[in-house]
C-alpha cells in the first residue's frame, strides 16, 4: 500500500459536506481525479494477480445492443455495418451510436454529484463542464479544465485488482432450490446484513482495494421473461432492487475501503430512493470518487464461481479512454 494512503480515516471521522456525512475530498488530496481508484496501487494489483489459478477468463460486458429499450429515458443503442468500397463487400466498418449509460457501464465522476448544491466530486461546480458536441482536434493542446474529472483518468490508470463476487441470487435461493424472495424489477433494499450473511455463506473476507461485485438478479430475470416485459420496463416508472441507502451501508463500503462497487442492476442502489434519504450515488461518486458499475453481466461468473467454490478473482477493466 502506498505510504500516502497507508492510514485512512474511518467513516465516522470524515467531515460533513452540508447535510451529507462522509466527505472524503481531503483524503485523496486537492485536485484528485481518481477517488477510491487511488487504492489500486501497484502492490494491490500485484497481490490480486495471485488470484489467477486456472487462467479461465469470464467477460462481464453485456452486449452493447442490450437492453434494446434502455431505462431512465436513454436512447436505444444503434449499430450500423457499412461496406467501405461498394460493390466490394470484403472491407467493412462498424459504426456505433450509444448512450454510455444504456447498458454495462461505469458511472464516472461527471455522472452524478451533490444535486442540492450543484457541485461534483472535489467541490467542482457542476456548470464548469462543457456540454454538447465535444471536439478535441489537437491531442497536444487540450485544456485540462475541459476534461476535468473525465473517465479517461480511470481508463489510463485501469480498474484492476481483486474482485469479490457476492452472489445474492444463489444465497437467497439456496443454490436455486427456492424462489428469490424479491423481484429485481421492483423496489427492494439489499441490506448490510444481507451482504454480510452472503459473504459468510461463501466463506469470503474483504481486504483494502477490493472491487465488490453484487449479483442481485436483474439480468437473470431479463433473460427469463418475454420480450414484451423487457421492453415494457422503458415505458413505466423505474423500480429496481439495490443496496439500501443507510448510514450503516455507507460506513461498511467506506471502512472496508473498496476501490469500486458494481452490480447487475440498472441502478446499484434500490430505486427509487426513500423520501428523505439521500441518494447513494451522491456519496459514492460525489464525496468519495468511487466507481459505480451497473448492468454487469454476472451470469457466467456466478456459474464458474459456484462450480469452483471460488468467489474471488483477478478483475481487470478499462473504461472508455475519452
Structural notes for this entry:
This protein is an alpha/beta fold and 322 residues long. It contains 10 helices and 12 strands. The protein has helices spanning 25-28, 42-48, 152-157, 168-172, 192-202, 218-224, 227-232, 247-255, 280-288, 299-308, and strands spanning 78-83, 92-97, 105-107, 119-120, 124-125, 159-167, 188-190, 211-215, 241-243, 260-263, 292-294, 312-317. The chain has a 6-stranded mixed beta sheet. A two-stranded antiparallel ribbon has the order 1-2. A two-stranded antiparallel sheet has the order 4-5. The model has no long low-confidence stretch (mean pLDDT 95).
List the helices and strands and how they pair.
Blueprint: H1 25-28, H2 42-48, E1 78-83, E2 92-97, E3 105-107, E4 119-120, E5 124-125, H3 152-157, E6 159-167, H4 168-172, E7 188-190, H5 192-202, E8 211-215, H6 218-224, H7 227-232, E9 241-243, H8 247-255, E10 260-263, H9 280-288, E11 292-294, H10 299-308, E12 312-317
Parallel strand pairs: 6-8, 7-9, 8-10, 10-11
Antiparallel strand pairs: 1-2, 3-11, 4-5, 6-12
In short:
By secondary structure, the chain is α/β, with parallel strands linked by helices.
Rounded to the nearest angstrom, the distance between the terminal CA atoms is 28 Å
Structural class: alpha/beta
Q: Strand count, sense and closure of the main sheet?
A: 6 strands, mixed
The value of Rg in angstroms is: 20 Å
Number of helices: 10
C-alpha geometry: globular
The amount of helix comes to 10-25%
What key phrases describe this protein's structure?
322 residues, alpha/beta, six-stranded mixed sheet, globular
